[in-house]
Amino acid sequence: MSACVEETAFSKTKETTRIVIIGAGASGIAAATKLLEQGFKNVQLFEAEDRIGGRINTVPFANSFVDLGAQWCHGEEGNVVYETVKDLDVLDRTGDFAVYFVRSNKEILSDEQTKVLKEFKDEFEVKPDCEGSVGDALNESYWKEVGQKAFPDNRTIAKEALDCMKRHICSEDACDTVSELSPRNYLNFHQSGGDQNLSWRQKGFWKFLSILLNANEDQPGDQGVLKGHVHLNKRIAEINWSGSGETTLRCWNGQIVSADHVICTVSLGVLKEKHPKLFVPALPADKVRSITGLKLGTVNKFLLEFEVQPFPEEMRGIACLWLEEDLKELRGSKFFWLESICGFHRVDRQPLLLEGWIIGAHARYMETLSEEKVLEGLMWLFRKFLSFSVPYPKNLLRSQWHSNPNFRGSYSCYPTYADELRTGRTDLGSPLVHVSGRPRVQFAGEATSQTHFSTVHGATESGWREADRLIEFYKGRAEN
Ligand SMILES: Cc1cc2nc3c(=O)[nH]c(=O)nc-3n(C[C@H](O)[C@H](O)[C@H](O)COP(=O)(O)OP(=O)(O)OC[C@H]3O[C@@H](n4cnc5c(N)ncnc54)[C@H](O)[C@@H]3O)c2cc1C
Question: pTM for the whole thing?
């Protein structure tokens, strides 16, 4: 069919066209609410989970709410999350996120050493001509700038502190090791200026979605303006975009749905695992290359509720430094996975909680353990590192982002493998378009964001970007 014949044949308008959005996370919700606002009528979201929100997962805990996924609004300038809520007085500044660096022999690094490490971490940047990985750049500048200054006579502690900093970077950038992280992760990301850890006053990140949805802020999952448009527990198993007409989607339960436009927002982890079966015919080679090259790393959280806050008043949080001999012993024990815990900190406005973070392969292993075993490990860690005793918590909650087949990880990064394959986010986000220019299958989600990947603001922008693509396409197509 020629482009011109197809254009005549495709006579849909905003009123009649059928749009299916796969996934009801931040990007799917952003796309759907914008399309409805703009007068599109037939917008349906198919969500595999039994809830909306995706990697925003605000849940009740300790008489309040906590986030198992996204938690902070990272920055103020050029951040659409901040822009959306800035006049509503819903965010708290958490300010300086200072922690104590604690060694596995219970020693705490001096204030001066802590200051130098923190300054280095805050100011560390990757030069545009950087060759190799972020790990290479970090090693070089650390030993030049910090190793000698903060620890002139003690290369051992300097090395422990560097390992600790590396774990911290992995938790921010969702890589398993900094040596697999591409400089592009720093060079392409546009950090929004201002406070990097704005928190939601016990309402959790759901507060942001409740505003997009005009839903109840105290009821995570309320669908607000999307009521009647969302289909929960509906995993899409196949997207058939063969031919030149409509796209046919098959749900896991056999239900068939037809659409003129599909916006696919599933995570990069789901794409990696499922794309060969999910798309019929197979995706083009450049898209597959980007799915293969980019990475969805694993970062998980622990939330612990105590009768009384176990950390002393002045202690906001701790970061763990392993002595070489302790690490050796740990690696031979059943608690080997504790090596990848970055540390623990207090939770804003929730004085009885502690929150901990774990990264990479050990985070994936932790997901396979029972809660009892996880708690046994965490209590062992507290005893190992702290000179005061931490009582058994009342409750534990931990995230398991990798083992959930609807996510398969936490957030995306550029590994050096993506550089080797010469691929990136442009290929991932580009739509499958009919020769006439009609978008057929579009891609949104944090991993498709060029400059704000791995964040909620990036996911939201990507949903709006794909909504705008359709709004633009239907401009001038008069209603009959
Ligand atoms: C532990 C953790 C901490 C984080 N902290 C922050 C933070 O502090 N600040 C910040 O800005 N960002 C943070 N993020 C990142 C942020 O949560 C994500 O970037 C963002 O929420 C991703 O939204 P999305 O719409 O791209 O994807 P998702 O939220 O993953 O949405 C995709 C949806 O698709 C559904 N789905 C998958 N497969 C199918 C299928 N076959 N059929 C139908 N539906 C399907 C999924 O269930 C999911 O609901 C964090 C993430 C994690 C995991």
Answer: 0.97
